[in-house]
Amino acid sequence: MFRLEKRPTPSKFWLYATPPVAVILTMIAGGILFAAMGKNPFEVIRTIFWDPVFGEFAFYLRGQLLVKAGPLILIAIGLALGFRAGIWNIGAEGQYIMGAIFGAAVGLAVFPTENRLIFPVMVIAGAFGGWLWAMIPAILKTRFNTNEILVSLMLVYVAETILAKASTGFLKNPEGMGFPGSRNFSSYPAAQNGFIYEPLGLHWGGVAALVTGVLAYILLTRHQAGFQIKLAGQAPRAARFHGVSPARLVVLCMGISGALAGLAGLFEVTGPAGQISIDFNTGYGFTAIIVAFLGRLNPLGIVLAGFLMALTYVGGEMASTNLGLPDAAIQVFQGMLLFFLLAVDVLTNYRFRLPFSVGAK
Amino acid sequence: MTTTRPELLRVEGITKAYPGVVANSDVSFAISEGEIHALLGENGAGKSTMVKMIYGLVRPDTGTMTLRGAAYQPAKPAEARRLGVAMVFQHFSLFEALNVAENVALGMENPPPMRELAARIRAVSEEYGLPLDPSRMVGDLSAGERQRVEIIRCLLQDPKLLIMDEPTSVLTPQEVEILFKTLRQLSSEGTAILYISHKLEEIKSLCDEATILRRGKVVATCTPRERTAREMAELMVGTALKTPERRQGQKGEVALGVSDLSAASPIPFGTSLKGVSFTVAKGEVLGIAGVAGNGQDELLLALSGELKAAADKVRVAGNAVGDLGPVERRKAGLVAAPEDRYGHAAAPDMSLVENAFLTAGVRKGLTKNGFVDWAGTRAFAEEIIKAYDVRTPGPDVAARALSGGNLQKFLMGRELMQGAAVIVINQPTWGVDAAAAAQIRQSILDRAGEGAAVVVISQDLDELLEVSDTFAVLNEGRLTKPRPTEGLTMDEIGLMMGGAHGMEVAHHVQA
């Protein structure tokens, strides 16, 4: 058997080689899976990775990429800051829902007033909703030392229940003839998040995602807070020695990730989704966890990873409609990506050795 | 007298290389039955690797070993134990939440029933003057008592060769004497002892023969009783040693004042501080001794600001800082250096530049509007590397890539070069080779000469006697009244350290 040996310094090569290698391994393992299901693996892989960008319907699908990548990037960057610090917010999906509800509620409350300030205020309300929802696990952790993974995850289900209540109750469209769901923002210009440049699928959410990516990169590499986040994740005792208060860091990281997830929810509900509905949330909050790791918890990497994941979404949808592949197979495929990524990632800090080439230490 | 005894173990031409370093190169020596043999060398000289090979933890690349004339090549420690080789490690492998007998049973192949084992532990502990209650929880034992658990675990196997790796680093002087009595008794009964240390006075008083290693090679063999400690030290280091020079500084007004400081330990099985009081004047070095685990880590945390107290319990230049965190205390002029390099004083995976920022950011003004001045930080890191002769390819390598001694030099430089009025250091030269240790002690004295108040917490008494002006001991979280170091005898120091923790009685009964 081989054994793993810790490298003296992390390998620069594997740091950058890991994501492409993981993607290739996913294609191979996924191909075997698709072949076992009786599909032509090359056709499926081409449909997922090639057609959305260069295929027959690329003119439409290319725009879909940024529409899907935007919320993923926005949420993943927030999560990555926490993950870097060893703070595990798993409940971005719930914060995403609450951001959408808070923002939408503000807009719908003043319907049908037309004012330029309405949308900016909704954006702030959306961020606030996500922040507030993330503060629950944050404060429980700092006060009572509860586990933020469990609490934030459970709050997703609470948020989903509130979402159902909103679409059938307090935010229901009074002119909706009894159907669940709120008013559609596409018919309310002051509160609508329309496309800025449609061929690229660019709306305010996409702008926010790209700007956040750059800002988060600067925070992590240049700012003291970024240093403290990294330090707390790598060496918690050294972080306290440096002067970081663990409780304040939890509140900061949970707050940022909650607010960004809330923003993503707001941009989605006022744009592509159009309205609050029972099935408004589609799992961006969970998929963003994969995106965060796929992007090496690095904001710029996450921007790239967000597009890659969006590709598997858009391409996966194509594969399921054109080739009759079940949705579950696409989800397994996305899961494989995280699996291989984490497996190959070991090589950044470790290398393989034959037994007895080094002694026990 | 050694010639009359039959040979027990012979080691011939042993070589062991790790990637990048040769730990042992063509090492040969022999031990007779009943002989106490010292393996002497600096940190990193290859002592530990050598004994790991004898104990079956590491396989030699080349070379042979014979035990009582038969070829000996243990593949694993269990085999070594079966052939009569036992080892007491420097770092204990005990479970704090289990009692003594349970811990002993865990190290045995076929442990007898608990009651029988407890009886045997009692019998062996009485026979060798090492009192130990088999039913006590290990978490409640002192470091010296824990070592006894390890020794008794070995003695139960009736070993022919007992290997002891730096056994006295956790003992008070009185406890050391008791240990030596036990080892001499074992030796007179025919058990050979391979004794690893870099403490020369001990070796002179205990050992029959010594093999001196330097950089993995045998540089000399000698009879310790016939050599001076200085001769052996120079053989060990390879050059003449410089004793640190004390610069006569002016003792000024009080720079650090601590009064009646009590703090609960944040560490599981840690020791709480109980009413610690002392003052340190400008230009003064206060040495704080004590056996490991008597509150040293907690005192460092309470001074660095990681553990807060009431404001007036800690004063820097008259300003109350007891309720302030590490950042504010650094601003007030107090810097601290914790013992644990990997994970506390430094982040192992971060570069030296980032580690320089870790504590120097405040006093060196390395942030502007919250943004880090990385260029300035790099310049400071390079300054430390140059001034403290840190061997590294550059400031961008991860801290964990440096050897322990080099990283320690870097971390000492980081705190000493910030121009702080008060400097607190826990274990300044732990695991550092003699030349680097001398350099670190010299720079501590230099900073005191420039007017800094320095607190040195250490388990190395020789080090404290060398650098400190005043001397105090931490014992179970209490600090003795500081006394001038000059004129203190080892006996007095031992009594300040709590004597032998009630162990004298046992040997009096023996004698």
Structure overview:
The complex is a heterodimer of chains A (361) and B (511). With 361 residues, chain A is mainly alpha-helical. In chain A, 70% of the residues lie in helices and 4% in strands. In chain A, the strands form two sheets. In chain A, strands 1-4 form a two-stranded antiparallel ribbon. A two-stranded antiparallel sheet of chain A has the order 2-3. Chain B has 511 residues and is an alpha/beta fold. Chain B has two domains: 2-237, 3-Layer(aba) Sandwich (Rossmann fold); 254-496, Rossmann fold (3-Layer(aba) Sandwich). Chain B is built from 17 helices and 23 strands. Chain B has helices spanning 47-54, 77-82, 100-106, 114-127, 143-155, 173-188, 200-206, 229-237, 296-304, 326-332, 352-363, 374-387, 404-416, 434-449, 461-467, 490-496, 504-510; strands at 7-18, 21-32, 36-40, 62-67, 70-71, 85-88, 161-165, 192-197, 209-214, 217-222, 254-263, 273-281, 285-289, 314-316, 319-320, 334-337, 367-368, 371-372, 422-426, 453-457, 470-475, 478-479, 483-484. In chain B, strands 13, 16, 19, 20, 21, 22 and 23 form a seven-stranded mixed β-sheet that branches. Chain B has a six-stranded mixed β-sheet with strand order 6-7-8-3-9-10, sandwiched between helices. In chain B, α3 (100-106) packs across α5 (143-155), α12 (374-387) packs across α13 (404-416) and α13 packs parallel to α14 (434-449). The longest helix of chain B has 16 residues, at 173-188. Residues 504-511 of chain B have low confidence and may be disordered. At the A-B interface, α9 and α10 of A face α10, α11 and β18 of B.
